[in-house]
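dumping these here so i dont lose them again. two proteins, back to back, each one seq then structure tokens. dont judge the mess
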Amino acid sequence: MDANLISRLFFGRACRLPLAIWILHLEGGRFYQSEPPRSIAPQTAITQELSRFVELGLLHEERSGSEHRVYYLRTTSPLWGIIEACVDLVSDQVAAPQ
């Protein structure tokens, strides 16, 4: 199945599912805002999706006062189970963390 099609139709935006899968597979679950690969989406779209994930409780946002960097930490939300269920369908099409 096509990851972008599933993401757009089921999740509302083609980049949302690939970004969520990238976060799910990220070792440690902590990353900074510009870390997700540009192959998933342009930086503006990634920033918008990260904000949505914070609203959903999938991520916790951490701001570094002096560095102006925004970090995200994956939560233990049960919503991650939905993303895990999609992995088998699209795992061959989604970028793995670098």
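---- next one ----
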Amino acid sequence: MAKEETLPQPVSTMTPAQLERRRRLTDTVIEMIDQMGPEQLQMRDVAERSGVALGTAYRYFSSKDHLLAAAWADWQRRLTDRVRAEVSRDASRNRSAPGGACTRVQAFLSRETRAFQRHPNFARLVAYVEVSSDPFASEELAGLRSDNFATLVALMDGVPADVVRPAMTAINATLGSGLTAWICGRLTFADFSRQLEEVVRLILGPYDQA
């Protein structure tokens, strides 16, 4: 079909009105994902609920996978901004309490994973978009990974550079596999949280303040 052959319009070239319509589409996905899994969500339903024409939706997103990846990236960035603010606020209130990279990363990941516990369909969305073959969905995920990397690097202030990258690899692998195992019923949320905490403590524990 023609809509599958047409490349989506780059975000950098969109007008404010186009960006607003694009945002309505991703916001609608975020609302709908809380009510249904990503497999059940359809582009036509998103367009209708958002008030954006289906043809317009396909000018902004190459496929359902592209739209879901963009919505997931928006949700994750909002969550990250909120959690970073909470961690920073708590650190300011408890300046006398010991803590370093391990404490900061643990606090950040604990809040983020609890958000998935409250909204399990977003964990299902992560698993869904991570295996997508859509190149534009992959671009969205690459941008999100870059942002997440920068966030964790900032939280790992004081950790040697040659430790940061393998730490990121281990933490992200544990987080990703744990979320998938949890939503598939192979792991309880408590065990998932414990495994993630153990990995963080093993790698970053030596860099916490005594």
